[in-house]
Amino acid sequence: MNYRDYRSITLNGTLLVEKEIITYCETSGQEHLRKAANFFREWLSDDPEISVNTSGSTGTPKAIKVQKNQMLASAAMTAAYFDFRPGQTALLALPIDYIAGKMMVVRAFYSRLDLYCIKPDSHPIDQISTDKSIDFAPFVPMQVHEVKDTKSIRKILLGGGPIDRLEEERLSLLQSDIYHGYGMTETLSHIALRKISKSDKERAYSALTGVYFEQDEVGCLIIHVPFLEAPVITRDVVRLIDAKTFIWQGRADYVINSGGIKLFPEMIEQKLSSHIPEQFFIAGIPDPKYGAQVSLFIESTPYDQDRHQILISVIQEVLDKMERPRQIYYIPTFQRTESGKIQRKATIAARQTDQ
After folding, report:
1. CA spacing 20 to 30 A to 15: which of 83, 239, 260, 347?
2. Which pLDDT belongs to residue 354?
3. Is the CB of residue 71 less than 8 Å from the CB of residue 81?
């Protein structure tokens, strides 16, 4: 597999070769396509590597170099799983700056897909005409939040963050086949998938062909990918079912050690997800007695007294004693990344600064 063999692509129904691709994007008059021109220029160059920025899944965010042939190998795994065929239509509604957007382009190169490029925003499905049929579309969860109609999209791949239980139940009722991917920049997009739509939805992630898993001494996932030279050691704590399957439990960085008991915020959030309509998260706040105190942060103005008391009653009912937040903080606006992920530490720091 050689990246030099992949120099033509169909964009929005137009077959383009080499420099035609860059010219098409630069003269389109659309900002997202002009940005894409930079990536196409990188891909068509003789340099076998591309620089990408990590998100922090395996440590401090940083720029790394990846091989173009490795990206093609990742695209081949996805193509085999979803049975891509030449001429099928795929959607690019993700920023080209990040690995997910770059990999969608590489998949189109590899599988000869017709890549339909639209502006990456929080409501991409609204941009799709009713008569347009899309075979495959990757989104981040924020882009399908509250969507009631996925129109004529056959398969949707969600990535970039966890999905709470209530949102997952809602998504399972949509007409598309929806999959939740697990992966990161270091693995060149997803390396495991679980179906979350319709009657055959799954809780555990299953590895793509050639990928297998193990754990380190603290329970964090170690990923072995056939086209990578070294295993990827993550900060994700999982319940490993076998070498090909795991259930995600939470980030080691977010684990709350309260009185010697380890609590996973994401597991507590799952229990509360159907009871709090606003965006929220659980975090540990330093405590002189217990080491850390479980706290609930809600993106909202303060509840009135009656609603606050109802929330307290729900917490007492659905959470175990050690899981119950000792403090509830109402914050009008959470800190977020460009891709829409909540920045927990920055949000907590901003609250403490405002006090």
Report:
1. 83
2. 58
3. no
pLDDT confidence tier of residue 211, bands split at 50, 70 and 90: very high
- Beta strands 114-117; 153-158: pairing state: unpaired
pLDDT digits (tens, 9 = 90+) for 25-56: 999 989 999 999 999 999 999 999 998 877 65
What Å distances lie between residue 183 and 67, 239, 243, 346, CA to CA? 17, 16, 16, 23
Residue given tokens 């940005």 in the structure block: 35
Domains and CATH numbers, the chain: 3-208 (3.40.50.12780), 255-354 (3.30.300.30)
Q: Is 110 exposed, middle or buried (0-12, 13-18, 19+ CB in 10 A)?
A: buried
Inter-CA distances, 325 with 276, 294, 315, Å: 14, 5, 8
The separation between CA 100 and the C-alpha centre of its own chain, rounded to angstroms, equals 9
